[in-house]
Design goal:
Layout (H helix, E strand, L loop, with lengths): L6 H4 L5 H14 L5 E2 L11 H12 L12 H15 L8 E4 L1 H13 L5 E6 L4 H8 L3 E6 L8 H6 L5 E7 L11 H11 L5 E5 L22 E6 L12 E4 L2 H12 L7 H12 L3 H22 L5 E2 L7 E5 L7 H12 L1 E2 L1 E2 L8 E5 L4 H17 L2
Parallel strand pairs: 1-11, 3-4, 3-5, 5-6, 6-7
Antiparallel strand pairs: 2-8, 7-8, 9-10, 10-13, 12-13
Helix pairs in contact: 3-10, 4-10, 5-6, 5-9, 11-13
This protein binds 4'-deoxy-4'-aminopyridoxal-5'-phosphate and glutamic acid.
The site of 4'-deoxy-4'-aminopyridoxal-5'-phosphate has 13 residues, from helix 5.
């Protein structure tokens, strides 16, 4: 049937991570013994303290719209967090609360892009960037990172032309876990001086790091940086959908205008959750780190023992991104077969613009991860 769907939608792919996650969950629901290491979603429950506040606000009957841009108290607390964690000064009119970092990014592209405008995206990249740029009628310009998955600043600067509207920085990175070095962020900021280009800094994995602390490029390029962040990963509340965007007040006003005609405000109850998350400081992400650290160490050791396997050890987030030459070269096929024969669901590098690699999310329990690795080892030995 011809449903007269517009070209813009026909030409985009669905979120690969969400498609693969659903596929794995459907198989599990059918009773298949699948281990799901696809989506980046922590397996920890939402913190009890936060759940209690949410319940209390619901029972009290808190049911009204809030300002589109978010509750004043929440915006103030986000400014306080930026000061404390990032040494950055922002005012409430430079903040908008969104339905997750995903909506922050979507809205930014709608607001800053016109037909044919270019956005530089370092590869490997998170699945939604390219499709969101297309939805904004822009063009994604892919620029590979270096051998260690750090930013190739010279290549990024070289890719800038009159049509360039923005550069995306995602550190800690999904899928590589790489934290871009401070030296590279400074070098990029310096190279951008006098150029009319936004930097969109996706900092959603800020608190999930295992040694090096990530820096925000806003510290070196504040005027033209748009910070994107949220509570999904730091507080294990992916499904609650709270994120935020920070940038100059003129831009924020435009984002608010757009949001006022789409979702309006983020669920008022979930804004209460975000307020509580900020009031508890970084207590929760800190609580999650020791367990994630253990899983990360285990996986790095096990994967690097597979003959030929290589990876740049991840500094943050909860992914390992690796390749086994001769075995994972067609990563899509490898992942399909791994699911079919070994019942382990992972994401192929193609989804992140890096064929030959596999992304494995360790946001799953240690016993499940151990079982998955044992199945992967057997699968590689037996090569179907
Ligand atoms: N950016 C990156 C790099 C991500 O991995 C994700 C995945 N959830 C998002 C943004 C979106 O996060 P949220 O749940 O806040 O929409
Ligand atoms: N960002 C997560 C991932 O890469 C969640 C899925 C999504 O939002 O696309 O797996």
């Amino acid at each position: 049937m011809d449903c007269k769907i517009c070209k813009k939608i026909i030409n985009i792919a669905p979120s690969a991570t969400l498609v693969l996650d659903k596929q794995a969950k459907d198989l599990i629901a059918k009773g298949e013994p699948v281990i799901n290491l696809t989506a980046g979603e922590l397996d920890f429950p939402a913190p009890l303290e936060i759940r209690k506040k949410v319940t209390k606000a619901t029972i009290k009957g808190f049911n009204t719209y809030t300002p589109t841009g978010g509750l004043p108290e929440l915006k103030k607390l986000i400014c306080k967090k930026l000061k404390k964690d990032n040494k950055l000064s922002y005012k409430s009119d430079e903040v908008i609360v969104t339905n997750g970092a995903k909506q922050s990014l979507f809205n930014i592209f709608q607001v800053i892009l016109g037909p044919g405008d270019e956005v530089i995206i370092p590869t490997p990249y998170w699945v939604s960037y390219v499709e969101q740029v297309k939805l904004g009628e822009g063009k994604a310009v892919l620029v590979p990172t270096d051998n260690n998955f750090d930013l190739n600043v010279d290549a990024v600067l070289k890719a800038i032309n009159k049509k360039t509207k923005a550069i995306i920085i995602n550190s800690p990175n999904n899928p590589t876990g790489k934290i871009y070095s401070e030296a590279n962020l400074k070098k990029l900021a310096k190279g951008l001086k006098g150029k009319d280009v936004w930097v969109i800094s996706d900092e959603i994995y800020e608190h999930l790091n295992y040694g090096i602390k990530p820096d925000s490029i806003a510290r070196f390029y504040k005027q033209r940086t748009i910070i994107v962040n949220g509570f999904s990963k730091s507080h294990a509340i992916t499904g609650w959908r709270v994120g935020y965007t920070v940038g100059n007040s003129h831009l924020i006003k435009s984002l608010e205008k757009l949001q006022s005609h789409s979702s309006g405000n983020v669920s008022n109850i979930m804004q209460i959750a975000a307020i509580e998350a900020l009031k508890t400081g970084n207590k929760y992400p800190k609580k999650f780190i020791p367990e994630l650290k253990k899983r990360r160490k285990y996986l790095i050791e096990k994967i690097l023992k597979i003959p030929g396997a290589t990876m740049a050890e991840p500094d943050g987030a909860f992914y390992v991104f690796f390749r086994i030459p001769g075995i994972t070269d067609d990563s899509e096929k490898f992942c399909q077969n791994l699911l079919k024969y070994a019942k382990v669901a992972v994401v192929p590098g193609e989804c992140f613009g890096k064929k030959g690699y596999i992304r494995l999310s360790y946001a799953n329990s240690t016993p499940k991860i151990k079982e998955a690795i044992s199945r992967i080892e057997k699968f590689i030995k037996n090569k179907p």
